[in-house]
Amino acid sequence: MLQTRLARFNTPRAIAWLLAGLVCALGLTVVFYGQRTNLSLTLLFFSLGLAALAAWATYALYRLGQAYKQAQHEIAQANRLLAENVDERATALQVTNINLKMEVIERRAMEAELLRYREHLEEIVAQRTAMLEKTNLHLLDEIAQRKKAERKLFEQKERAQITLASIGDAVVTTDAKGQVVYLNPVAEELIGKHNAEVKGQPIADMMHLLNEATRETVENPVLSCMRESAHAVANNASLLIRGDGNEIPISDSAAPIRDRENNIIGAVMVFHDVTTERQLTQQLSYQATHDALTGLVNRQEFERRLTRVLQSAKADHTEHALMFLDLDHFKQVNDTSGHAAGDELLRQIAALLKHAIRQRDSLARLGGDEFGLLLERCSMQLAESIAKDLLHHINAFVLDWSGVPHKVGLSIGMVAINQNSDSLTAVLSAADAACYESKRSGRNRYSIYPTAPQL
């Protein structure tokens, strides 16, 4: 309302009407009041003052109107700018609103998806929890079974350790590389080293083995069985060389250790000292091939050697000689001084004859007072020289038995062995015949069978 009135008043017409009204008002005032009083001049001046005041008020109003127009113009511009800003802001707000709505929609969708995912996760967690609980129960049961199995394995290991420590054989175990893992007490004693000293060492460095016959180095059976994947490798002719240089004959065997997949993870070697067995075997072998009274080879061993020489003569065309030796007057020693004197005579005669022959030759007691002598790679000329030497030694020998001297003679029969010789029986018969010829010719001499026997 005020803006409307001011708009009307600010026009030139309004100003003119206002000034006219003021003049008229002043004139009427002077007319009416001047006739009644003497104050006409005063009123005139007062009217003029009012007119001036009215003029000033009109001018002030005019300036106010101009200021108002200017303000209205600025307000309009401001409103226009504001409207433009409002439109821009409104557009921005609309875009923002749309974006917010989209974001809200997306967030709601995400929340819904997250909710579904959470429900799915909760379901999975519940399933996994159930599975874990079941697995936990299974693991607890398995742990209990494993502890039970471990106790059994420990007990078995303890029994195995006690068994290994108690058995009389030496036991060595190695890993897949042939490095020592364990020695039982018997193995420690035989090898001469403690378990802690050799653990982790190669078994070939710890045990030096030789072939008993050839004295050549033998590969450790542990390495052989692992290389060849053999079930077992045995050797009965090995010598264990200890660190102090002593030699121990051993009988050994080795076998690989396999896991569940049949892979070789190590090996075990079992061996024992066979010194006593070897001595007993050698003693039995010696007894089987030697005469108990004189220590010379017996008839069986002598015939075996003679067979070998016959085969060599035929194969290599070599020459050998066979002698039959028969003591003369031996029965008189038994008859006069007893069998003890006769046995002592035989022992001393055997030692005397053995000392008089070559080391390669074989001297045997064939029975009673009969001896056999096999001269290998010997010509008949050399054999005659040996026969003469034997006669010389026997003729010079005297047995003093309780102050009673005893002398014996020696009858020798010789036969040549060469590629023309026939069988074992033939050469033995020929030698026996030649010996009989020496006795028949007066004893204490040698006779040579004239030709190679052909029976």
Largest β-sheet summary:
6 strands, antiparallel
Within the largest sheet, what's the order of strands? 2-1-6-5-4-3
Radius of gyration: 72 Å
Low-pLDDT residue spans: 1-9
Please report the number of helical segments: 13
Terminal residue distance: 178 Å
Give a count of the beta strands, DSSP E runs of length 2 or more: 13
Residue share in β-strands:
15-25%
Structural class label: alpha+beta
Q: Write the element-wise H/E pattern from the N-terminal end onward.
A: HHHEEHHHEHEEEHHEHHEEHEEEHE
Shape: rod-shaped
Overall pLDDT: 82
| Share in helix | 55-70%
Query: How many domain modules?
Result: 3
List keywords for this structure.
single chain, 455 residues, alpha+beta, Beta-Lactamase, Alpha-Beta Plaits, 3 domains, 6-stranded antiparallel beta sheet, 5-stranded mixed beta sheet, 13 helices, 61% helix, rod-shaped, disordered N terminus
Secondary-structure map:
Layout: H1 2-9, H2 12-36, H3 40-166, E1 170-175, E2 180-183, H4 185-191, H5 195-198, H6 203-206, E3 208-211, H7 221-228, E4 233-241, E5 247-258, E6 264-273, H8 275-289, H9 299-316, E7 320-328, H10 330-337, H11 339-356, E8 362-367, E9 370-375, H12 380-396, E10 399-401, E11 404-406, E12 409-417, H13 424-440, E13 446-448
Parallel strand pairs: 12-13
Antiparallel strand pairs: 1-2, 1-6, 3-4, 4-5, 5-6, 7-9, 7-12, 8-9, 10-11
